[in-house]
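debug: dumping io for the single-chain case to check the tokenizer round-trip. Nothing else runs in this session.
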Amino acid sequence: MPKQDFAHVDQWVFDLDNTLYPPHARLFDQIEVKMTNYVMQTLGVDQARADYLRSHYWATYGTTLAGLMREHDVDPGPYLTEVHEISLDHLEQDHDLAAHIRDLPGRKIVYTNGSAPYAERVLAARGLTGLFDAIYGVEHADFRPKPELEAFQMVFAKDGITPDRAAMFEDDPRNLAVPHQLGMKTVHVAPDPHDGDHIHHHTDDLTAFLQRLTAS
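debug: decoded output
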């Protein structure tokens, strides 16, 4: 990985889930159960139908919540509170990751399709509290989710992000298309690479990737 590819970057945007903690933590296993239950209760459908709708809305709109809002006028506040009430007990603090994030030059933010309060809990469990200049959840984009262009534009406008001086780290390859379009460096953080012209770099180890970026 050419370190010089990031020489111009002084604004760093990190997704949260499966990016700032490893996928084997499997937090989404808990969240998906909560989402399915919420869909069952709200729409009065059985589990099989709720699972289908949850997956269908994610694929169609970017998040289950976006589909529920657009097709069923669901209030996002109670939904976000309910689905993120999960146990974080098995998350481990990562002091090496914290050190390398701290060493990145410039401004650092978290931008998640989850809620900002949930993001703060995860960051605390990972030992990453206080390392980021701002934390943005889906509520900061008027509940529009990544990968929508308008969602990125709202959050980046609020934060003052200059895309041609910024990099985006994200586990969902769909959510790197707009950052690439805007002129950001894109890093896909996932166990397996994804082919796409909108992905500049791939890593299955964010800590090691940042270590190479910050090495003197």
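debug: round-trip ok. Residues 27-83 form a domain with the DNA polymerase; domain 1 fold (CATH 1.10.150.450).
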